[in-house]
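[agent] plan:
  1. take the single chain provided in the ticket
  2. run structure prediction with default settings
  3. attach structure tokens to the ticket
  4. add a short note for the reviewer (M.T.)
[agent] executing step 1
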Amino acid sequence: MRFRRLFEPGTIGRLTLKNRLIMPAMGVSLADAHGGVTNREIDYYAARANGGVAMVTPHYASVSVDSSLPYTMVISDDGQVKNWKALADAVHAGGARFSIQLMHIGMIFLYSGHVPKGVTIKVPSMTQWLKRTYQYHVVTEAEIERYIGDFAQAARRAKEAGADAVELHACHGCLVSTFMSPLTNKRTDQYGGSVENRVRFARRIVESMKEVVGKDFPIIVRMNASDDIEGGVSIDEAMEQAAILERAGADAISVSSGMEFWTPLGIPAYPFPEGAMIPLAEKIKQAVKVPVIGAGKITPELAEKVLEEGKVDFVAMGRPLLADPELPNKLREGRREDVRNCLYCNNCLRHDTQAPSCTVNPFLFRESRYPMAPAARPKRVMVVGGGLAGMETAIYLAERGHRVTIYEKTGQLGGQWITACASPGKDSYRHLTEYLDKAIKRLKIPVKLNHNVTREEILKAAPDTVILATGAVPVGLKVPGADKKHVVQGHDVLAGKVEVKGTSAVVGGRFIGMEVAVKLAEEGKPVCIITRNGLGEDGVKLEKFTFQSIANRLIELRVPLYLHATVVEIADKSVIILMNGEIYPVPADTVIFSVGMRSVADLAAELEGTGIEFHLVGDCVKPRDACEVHTQAAKIAALV
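[agent] step 2 finished; step 3 output follows
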């Protein structure tokens, strides 16, 4: 068996798990406005349990009334036990164990960007790092005693609700985590100073929970092995903390890292190497005898390897289970090639312009809508455009029973995604087109390459429906010199279609511009970024962890940034910018535009009034990211 070690049973305390795969807690907002369980929430967790994972841990449960966010479940009073029992029953019915993560949110309010009215952010001490736009409250020793009791009673409720274990959230900047970190804890009482004092709050919580739920009920502690920031918890300190928590009664240590509001390591995006936190987990395992759970950008192959090498005892796969809830079943059945691989793009974390979703799984948080119902009447469908939008829509249409043909004007499928795969750190992005290619072959969808479809051809073929997925093209700037030969597009640089000579200036400071600059700087080529706004600004807000990862890389590579600067002209050897009311020449032998895209929808205008039913999908509607494209593709396919 290829993943033999991954599917061996394991134990946490006296709890037996059927394999070594755990679904960790991840932030979702699927509860109702009062924190009650919803059918959508049950569907979401049941799908992962049915998919073969050993244990499911839902979104954190707030243990105190001053620590909750809207549309998330809480466990701060007995009336909420029935809500958690509904989730526990659904997970158990799917064959998985069920744990509940207990947390006081503390400074993670800073990451959420939302503090409920009348709530202050609870901190161990005031430091110069805190954003002054919020109200803070330094926790007293009397309040610490109350919070310890809150955690203990929350553990009792979890056990009554049918949970098989509880997990203490002690990482990423929650209240317990900030007590453990020397960066955020400057106290001089018994809860500050030494490592032993700073871990005292967490230790007493574990001891108190054990007293209430009994020694045989498993308690997992999820903690930072590193705060990933100077002055924070180091791996050496974390090893000491883990040993103390083990002595207090922790039955397993789940290893994470990073302060969520300051560093991106806690949810490593595509720029990070695989298994970025595994070396830290391996160190923690040297300090304790209880099982250690590793997490953070772990592929099935890496999971098998680190388990076989004894670096960890279990692996927590979060985002991969969002991408494909059937991942464990597919691996166990020898169907590795059928897995929809996570891209670590972090689109699932976005809460700005849409309901959060997944780039490779448009049915994330919409599990009841898949599989789609068979078509009442199969139709002949022409899909014009073989980028992601066209490929995805064609697949869903074919799965519904429609007779679909894809027409692509170039010699290969994939469109702009081929360029995306060439960006630094995005090698794994090719898994998506590989998966779609296999699905197209499996469904026997005819593909006509190097075929530029015209209005006349459509009228002659008379299909029942046309899907227009004609994409978008990069745009430039309307400034003098924009048409010079040394002015190129960022997409072409990433795709290797142009050679960048001498010193270069990237105009545009969002993801493509940042990635182009990183690529050139890593090649040792002098490059700068010029952007009319702040880095990453202008329009839709960029996903924070990914942005931080790339921005940090730009800083490491010492790429000059000209922020809030307007390009007024492109000369032969420089870009003339207006910045702070003054004119400056920025040296540039090559100028690289990364200023946006323009939809290509000419064929739609030509089909108006012909009587042909057609739908537009993807960038030809408006330029957007792949996550939105796939969600729209699924919606269009459901309508046809």
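[agent] step 4 note for reviewer: The CA atoms of residues 391 and 436 lie 7 Å apart.
[agent] ticket updated
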